């Protein structure tokens, strides 16, 4: 299983040491400082789920600063630095892949859009991606999508589940379907 990595953007560069100290008290993260406003933390425990919303709230309350966190599983072919570049433009909160797609598309960040499309296609495969897009075009109707794709409904469900497992985005939920449809519009 891959480790969870989070990119943490802070508004006050002078508070970087305080942020690092706070993170180390919370958990023994592997911490890498990228620049004066950005650091990358990796959860050393592959099986634990860190509550990054709690960490963001703690930083905002204790250090009185805006914090933006992008959380993703470390995977080959994913260039985190492309998404870190836009954190400065986003609202202070915790972002996962499905939440960051919408501001990227609406903000017309073409380099990041192209990277996400390539990453998704490489990660899940062309067949699974085509299946998900067809499912979304069928208004999230499983029977209609399976019929349109000339496949058994269980095959469709397997591919939708595989997409969710690999990307963390659930195409059967409106928020996931919306993000994917926006990305491939």
Key terms:
alpha+beta, 5 strands, 14% strand, elongated, single chain, Arc Repressor Mutant, subunit A, Alpha-Beta Plaits, five-stranded mixed beta sheet, 9 helices
Précis, in short:
The chain has 185 residues and is α+β, with helices and mostly antiparallel strands.
Share in helix = 40-55%
List the strand order in the largest sheet.
Answer: 2-3-1-4-5
Which CATH class of the largest domain applies here?
Answer: Alpha Beta
In round numbers, the mean pLDDT is 89
Total number of helices: 9
CATH superfamily of the largest domain: Reverse transcriptase/Diguanylate cyclase domain
Helix and strand element order:
EHEEHEHEHHHHHH
Could you please say which CATH topology of the largest domain applies here? Alpha-Beta Plaits
| Overall number of domains | 2
Tally of strands:
5
Quaternary structure annotation: single chain
For the record, the CATH architecture of the largest domain stands as 2-Layer Sandwich
Low-confidence stretches: none
Q: What global shape is seen?
A: elongated
Measured between the Cα atoms of the first and last residue, the distance is 32 Å
Q: How big is the Rg? A: 18 Å
Q: How much β-strand is present in the residues?
A: 5-15%
Structural class: alpha+beta
Strand count, sense and barrel status of the largest sheet are:
5 strands, mixed
Task: Explain what the structure shows.
This protein is an alpha+beta fold and about 180 residues long. The protein folds into two domains: about 90 residues, Alpha-Beta Plaits; about 70 residues, Arc Repressor Mutant, subunit A. About 55% of the residues lie in helices and about 15% in strands. It contains nine helices and five strands; from the N terminus they run E-H-E-E-H-E-H-E-H-H-H-H-H-H. Strands 2-3-1-4-5 form a five-stranded mixed β-sheet. The model has no long low-confidence stretch (mean pLDDT about 90).
